[in-house]
Amino acid sequence: MNENLRKTGMAATPGEPMQDQPAHEARGRWVHPSTVIALAQLLGTSLWFSANSAGQDLAAAWNVTTAEMGWLTSAVQAGFIVGTLIVAILGLADRYPASRTFAVSTIVGAVFNALFALVASGLDDAIVYRFVVGVSLAGIYPLGMKLIVSWEPGRAGMALAQLVAMLTLGTALPHLLRELGSGLPWQSVVLASSLLAIVGGFLVFRLGDGPFLPKRGARAGGKDAAPADRMNVMSAFRVREFRAAAWGYFGHMWELYAFWTVVPVLVVRTGLPSAFQLFGASGIAFAVIAAGAVGCLLGGVLSRRYGSAPVALGALAISGLCATVFALFWNTLAPPAVAGLLLLWGAVVVADSPQFSALSARSCPRSIVGSALAIQNSIGFAITVVSIALITSLLERVGLNAAWVLVPGPVVGLAGYLATVRGRIR
């Protein structure tokens, strides 16, 4: 078991007891924990963009602009920031069973997502419901990463790639549901997301926590002190490798959620639905976002051969290049070229995320891995609020030239990572 930890760079700290049953013996050899967690992540994170899939219907029903629709996404991001700050500062991710926190969070998120569909009558109250959905997601996404590390630390890069692939599909799923149920009220799509989230929470609750993390509940002050009593979460940033991964992650986050938010707008305004009449706008948007799942899985495979850092930096560089090409040539490229560019962009824009998270998980102290990932998520999502607000506002003023807003993220992420490690890619 300690050999597995050494492979991930998370060596055991003296005095931190470990549960000692092997993962597959604990739940039966037919169960693959990372598969269960990834599936639950897919279902749980369908809550994230459930409102965006109904964007056109909501804009017409509530008479709101593209920028105002962006506030719904920003409300989720803001709720996620608050939630991850609570999780990180109070050490909730390392004090309580991650599987139970995940399950409870899916129920809370599902309820408020349903209230958004059934009760909201305008943008003001809709923002409140979406904010609480964001808070609940703080118990789903970071806790999913911790669960992966708790079950399979020896293959963190690949396992986290599977997890983020499912997050990506979960993000795209409402667009697919909308395309399949194009004749149904938008509320049906949102309610379907709530049901899927509850199923995901049940799967993780049944799975439980893995054996590769310290036991909880020991008294503070002794050698078995509880994780939250050992170290302040911000101490993770004293580790150079963690800071480097955080720089890359923050640059990636500037681009990722702003891109996902405006994908439907990019698809419609470049005329792709007319050029590809077999697919509706929602179908094309689903394909662009879902391409990220393929990118994550391919990145996971490559990380096992080349390491997480080269894969993360390569994906971030290609994503920045895609943003630049789109910003320069969106109005001159033929529709097939635009579609190909968006699919490539969709594939690489998220492929770096699991690898930066794997680098962070390996480099930070093991006793605060849950809280460290939560605080990194919190800062990253605070960045997304700014980029989403900026691009949705500019779309109404300068059109698709607003894509230039996305370019600085990859540039700053690459520069920050390389400057921190001083040119050494680990």
Features:
mainly alpha, single chain, Growth Hormone, Chain: A, 20 helices, globular, 426 residues, disordered N terminus
A few lines on this structure:
The protein has 426 residues and is mostly helical. It has one domain: Up-down Bundle (Growth Hormone, Chain: A), CATH 1.20.1250.20.
Explain how this protein is built:
Helix content is 73%, strand content 0%. The chain is globular and about 50 Å long. The chain contains 20 helices and no strands. The longest helix has 30 residues. α10 packs antiparallel against α15, α10 runs antiparallel to α18 and α13 packs parallel to α19. It has a single domain, classed as Growth Hormone, Chain: A (Up-down Bundle), CATH 1.20.1250. It starts with a helix and ends in a 5-residue tail after the last helix. The N terminus is likely disordered. With 426 residues, it is mainly alpha-helical.
CATH fold node name: Growth Hormone, Chain: A
Strand content: under 5%
Shape: globular
Mean pLDDT: 81
- Biggest β-sheet: count, sense, barrel? none
Q: Helix- and strand-based class?
A: mainly alpha
Q: State the fourth-level CATH superfamily.
A: MFS general substrate transporter like domains
CATH class: Mainly Alpha
Helix content: over 70%
Low-confidence stretches: 1-29, 217-230
Which architecture per CATH? Answer: Up-down Bundle
Q: What sequence of helices (H) and strands (E) makes up the elements?
A: HHHHHHHHHHHHHHHHHHHH
**DSSP E strands, number:** 0
Quote the distance from N terminus to C terminus. Answer: 23 Å
Number of helices: 20
> How many domains, as an integer?
1
Rg from C-alpha positions? 21 Å
